[in-house]
Amino acid sequence: MLERAFAEAIDRSEITDETTERVLEAAHEQFRRIGIRRSTMEDVAKRAGVSRITVYRRFSTKDSLVQQVIRREFRRYFDRFLLDIQGAKTLAERVEIGFAGSLRAIRDNPLIGGLMDTEPEIVVPSMISDGGRTMTTVSRFVAGRLSEEQRAGTVAADIDVEVVAEMMVRISTSFLVTPSHHIDLDDDQQVRAVARRFLVPMLQPADDRSP
User: Fold this and answer.
1) What is the CA radius of gyration of the chain?
2) I want to staple 149 with a disulfide (CB 3.0 to 4.6 A). Which of 37, 44, 143, 154 is the partner?
């Protein structure tokens, strides 16, 4: 489910009407307050001020509704990521800001971050126990940004951006699902220092890396 939400968020194709938006907003609030497992389609309908039939006409199952709600959150995350790195002047800055901002955005997200705390049995397996499909989907997004850097000449042509993207996503996921006892993820400067020390060198030609 989370994999599909990621994929569709990256694809960005979306057609919604006012009622669908109302249902999605109500579902977001319902899931955030009560959790996904304890929420029903009837709960969402009541919160949206529509009939249960109206909800089912737009979302045939609870899973499809959850998928669309999560998709919207990750679209917002991707948009925030791109906005955050706009002001950076160098590749290194973009990597640092992107890494720190990504961790902060997901951890602070009222829905996604909250679910990771209250219902990790739903979110965490989707991130790490789906045969790598979710990581692959998110890696595609990161690799796409790195490919743009490569075309702009800020990343060497011989760097395999797909491998680098996967490594970055795996590191980010590890921080999200397993708290660190050495790095304070609430301290952007610490997180950026990690990116500067370990992630940025992955995008430099071997001859330019410090021994």
Assistant:
1) 19
2) 154
163: CATH: 1.10.357
- Minimum mean pLDDT range among 124-138, 154-168, 169-183: 124-138
Model pLDDT, residue 188: 92
Residues 1 and 39 in one domain: yes
Domains in the chain: how many in total? Answer: 2
What lies within 8 Å, CB to CB, of 202 at 6+ separation is 159, 164, 167, 168
- pLDDT classification of 211: cutoffs 50, 70, 90: very low
- What mean pLDDT comes out for the span 35-39? 87
128: Cβ contacts below 8 Å, ≥ 6 apart? 134, 135, 173, 177
Of the candidates 78, 59, 57, 80, the one whose C-alpha atom is nearest the C-alpha of residue 69 is 59
Check pLDDT > 80 for residue 30.
yes
Q: Are 55 and 80 in contact (CB under 8 A)?
A: no
Q: How many CB atoms lie within 10 A of CB 205?
A: 11
Residue 211 resides in a domain: no
